[in-house]
Design goal:
Layout: H1 3-20, H2 25-38, H3 44-47, H4 54-71, H5 74-86, H6 90-105, H7 110-128, H8 136-146, H9 155-166, H10 178-194, H11 207-218, H12 222-241, H13 246-259, H14 265-271, H15 274-292, H16 295-306, H17 313-328, H18 333-351, H19 355-366, H20 377-383, H21 390-415
Helix pairs in contact: 1-2, 2-15, 4-7, 4-12, 4-13, 4-14, 5-7, 6-7, 6-8, 6-10, 7-8, 7-20, 8-10, 8-20, 9-18, 9-19, 10-21, 12-13, 15-20, 16-17, 17-18, 17-19, 17-21, 18-19, 19-21
Length: 419
C-alpha cells in the first residue's frame, strides 16, 4: 500500500480516538507514531524523535519556570495586581489577556509568548476566582492570530515571502501582513468575548489547592519571588532579542529556578505537564509522515483538481484557505504553508491573476489552527493546565475558523486585488 494512503488511514483512526477520547490523548498520539514506524512510513529512529524536538524541550523548561512563579507566590501576587486594574469580570480579563498576548506574539514567537504568559494567566484566574479553562484557550488563540500581524510573527508569513522571492515576485513588506492580521485579531477577540466564551468549559483545576498549600507553607519569600520574576523576565528578553534558541533559554531559566531555590527539584519535575509533552512529541513524527510520505500533497492535489480547469480567483482563494486551514490542524503550520505556497502561485499565474491574495490566504489559514490541541504549540501548551478535552477545541475552534474565513475572504481581495 502507498505510504501516503497508510499515513491517511492512521491519521483517520487517530482522529476518531482524539474526538471520542476512548483512550488518553497522549496514548493516541504516541500510538499513531508507533504505527507509522511499524508500517515503515517513518524510520524506527523517527518514532520517538519528537521527544527531543526543540519545542518539547521548550515546553518542559517553561513549565518549570511557570512552576517557580507559583511556588514562590509571585503568580498570585501578579494576579492580585492585574485584578485590581481589570477587575474580576471575565470579559475584561479576557480582553486584557488576549490583547497583551496578541501584541507580544506579533513580534515574538507564538509559542514563547504563550509559554511565558501561561503561569501569569493562571495566577490571575486564581485570584479572580475564575476557572483557568475560561482564559487559557483564548490566550492560545490570541497567540496564534497575533502572529499574523508582522512578517516575523509566525513561520507561514516568512514562508510566503520566501515563495514569492523564489518565483521572482516582489515580497510582502514587514508590516503589510497587518492589513489582514489586525482585522483578524480584532475579530478573534470580539468573537471570544461575545460568542466563543459560551463554548469554553468551566473546569476547576484540581492542582490549584495543593499548590496554594505549598506556597503557604514554604515559599512566601520576597527574595525568591524577585528571583523568579527576574528569571522569567530574562527568559522573555532573551527570546525577544533572539540571543539564543528558545528551548535553550527556557532550560537555562528552569535550571536557574532550581539553583536559586525558587522551587525544589521534585517540584520542578511535578511542574511539567507530561500529557502535553507526550501528546506533542507523538504528533511530531505524524506531521513528518504527512509531509514526507506525500499524504499532504495527495490531499492538496485532490482539492486543486476539484476546482476545475478555470476556477475564479475568489473560488481559488477560498478553497486554498480552507485546504491550508484543514491541513494545519494536524500538520505544522510551517509544513502546510510550505506545501501550498508554490501551488498557490502556480494557480494564480494560471488564472492570470495576481498571486498576492492567494498567497496571503494560504499563509493566514496556516495560522488558524484552532480546532485541535495539536494544531499549534500554544494550543498544546494550555491543554493540561486548562484540563481541556479534544472536543473543547473543536467546539470553540471551528466557529472561530469560520469567522476568520469570512473576514479573510472579504479583506484580502480588497487589500491585494486579483487584477
Amino acid at each position: 500500500m502507498d505510504p501516503a494512503v497508510q499515513t491517511l488511514i492512521v491519521l483517520g483512526v487517530m482522529a476518531i480516538f482524539f474526538v471520542t477520547e476512548l483512550v488518553p490523548l497522549a496514548i493516541t498520539s504516541l500510538s499513531g507514531a508507533i504505527a507509522l514506524g511499524l508500517l515503515g512510513v517513518i524510520s524506527p529512529k523517527a518514532v520517538f524523535s519528537g521527544l527531543s524536538d526543540s519545542t518539547v524541550v521548550l515546553f518542559a523548561g517553561m513549565f518549570v519556570v511557570g512552576g517557580a512563579l507559583f511556588y514562590t507566590g509571585l503568580a498570585q501576587k501578579i494576579g492580585i495586581a492585574v485584578v485590581k486594574r481589570a477587575g474580576t469580570n471575565e470579559n475584561s480579563l479576557m480582553f486584557a489577556v488576549m490583547l497583551v498576548t496578541a501584541v507580544m506574539s506579533s513580534v515574538l514567537s507564538n509559542t514563547g509568548t504563550a509559554a511565558a504568559l501561561l503561569p501569569v494567566v493562571v495566577g490571575i484566574c486564581s485570584v479572580a476566582k475564575i476557572p483557568a479553562s475560561r482564559q487559557l484557550m483564548p490566550m492560545a488563540f490570541a497567540a496564534g492570530i497575533g502572529g499574523i500581524i508582522t512578517m516575523v510573527g509566525t513561520p507561514p508569513n516568512i514562508i510566503a515571502n520566501g515563495a514569492l522571492k523564489a518565483a521572482g515576485l516582489q515580497q510582502f513588506g514587514f508590516f503589510e501582513f497587518a492589513w489582514i492580521g489586525v482585522p483578524l485579531t480584532v475579530a478573534t477577540i470580539a468573537f471570544m468575548m461575545l460568542i466563543g466564551k459560551r463554548f469554553l468549559p468551566k473546569h476547576i483545576i484540581s492542582g490549584d489547592v495543593e499548590v496554594e498549600q505549598e506556597v503557604d507553607e514554604v515559599s512566601n519569600d520576597p527574595r525568591k519571588q524577585l528571583y523568579a520574576g527576574l528569571i522569567l523576565a530574562g527568559v522573555v528578553v532573551v527570546m525577544a532579542a533572539n540571543i539564543m534558541p528558545l528551548h535553550i533559554a527556557a532550560v537555562i531559566g528552569a535550571i536557574l529556578c532550581v539553583l536559586t531555590g525558587c522551587l525544589k527539584e521534585k517540584q520542578a519535575y511535578t511542574s511539567i505537564d507530561w500529557v502535553t509533552i507526550f501528546l506533542f512529541a507523538g504528533m511530531m513524527p505524524v506531521a513528518t509522515a504527512m509531509d514526507k510520505s506525500g499524504a499532504g500533497k495527495m490531499i492538496a492535489d485532490l482539492v486543486v483538481g476539484l476546482m476545475g480547469s478555470d476556477p475564479s480567483p475568489y473560488m481559488a482563494t477560498a478553497i486554498l484557505f480552507l485546504l491550508s486551514c484543514i491541513l494545519t490542524q494536524f500538520m505544522s503550520n510551517t509544513a502546510s504553508s510550505a506545501l501550498l505556497a508554490p501551488i498557490a502561485i502556480a494557480i494564480a499565474k494560471g488564472m492570470g491573476a495576481s498571486p498576492y491574495a492567494v498567497m496571503m490566504a494560504v499563509a493566514v489559514a496556516a495560522s488558524c489552527a484552532f480546532a485541535t490541541p495539536v494544531g499549534t504549540p500554544p494550543n498544546t501548551l494550555v491543554l493540561g493546565p486548562g484540563e481541556y478535552s479534544f472536543m473543547d477545541y473543536v467546539k470553540a475552534g471551528i466557529p472561530l475558523i469560520v469567522v476568520c474565513f469570512i473576514v479573510s475572504i472579504i479583506v484580502i481581495p480588497m487589500v491585494w486585488p486579483f487584477f
